[in-house]
Amino acid sequence: MLTETDANTLAYFFKPGGASWDQHRTMVASIPDSFRGRFVAVAGQPLALVRGGASDGGITVLRAREAADDAIDWAGAESLAIPDLGPGFDAPSALYVPSPSYQEHDIERLEWVACGTYGVADGLLWHVGVDGW
């Protein structure tokens, strides 16, 4: 689970399947300079986290090195910085990802839509896809 904090970080919590959240209330990792974050589970690949910077960090994708059955070490994850999407996307106000909750098939590609920075470009959307990573 990810939560967004007032300190512009993402707090990551983990609980094993079937376990109760009562026993897993402690944050496992903090992901700094992050305003938004979304998990993407691409079929046959480790879990990915698309995170949008809170200031001028732009968008970075982190990919787990271990199975999602265990808590993920996001600090040790593979990292892919997304090239500059243009003015107004340094701190995206929203990220939208494909999700099994509203799709009938497996997610076959790492992709998302970013909404521009609030008050600057929040009327703009950018569809981003990454192949071969």
Structure explained in plain terms:
This protein is mainly beta and 133 residues long. A hairpin with a 5-residue loop joins strand 5 (48-53) and strand 6. The model has no long low-confidence stretch (mean pLDDT 90). It has strands spanning 2-4, 10-12, 29-31, 34-40, 48-53, 59-63, 78-81, 94-96, 110-115, 125-130. The chain is globular, with a radius of gyration of 15 Å. It starts with a strand and ends with a strand.
Q: What key phrases describe this protein's structure?
A:
four-stranded antiparallel beta sheet, three-stranded antiparallel beta sheet, 0% helix, 133 residues, mainly beta
In short:
With 133 residues, the protein is mainly beta. It contains no helices and 10 strands.
**How much beta, percentage-wise?**
25-35%
Instruction: Tell me the major beta sheet.
Output: 4 strands, antiparallel
Secondary structure: helix percent:
under 10%
- Total strands: the figure is 10
Calculate the mean pLDDT score and round it: 90
What would you call the shape?
Answer: globular
Give the strand order, joined by hyphens, for the main sheet.
4-5-6-7
Distance between the termini: 23 Å
Low-confidence stretches: none
Rounded radius of gyration (Å): 15 Å
- Structural class call reads mainly beta
Order of helices and strands: EEEEEEEEEE
The helix count comes to 0
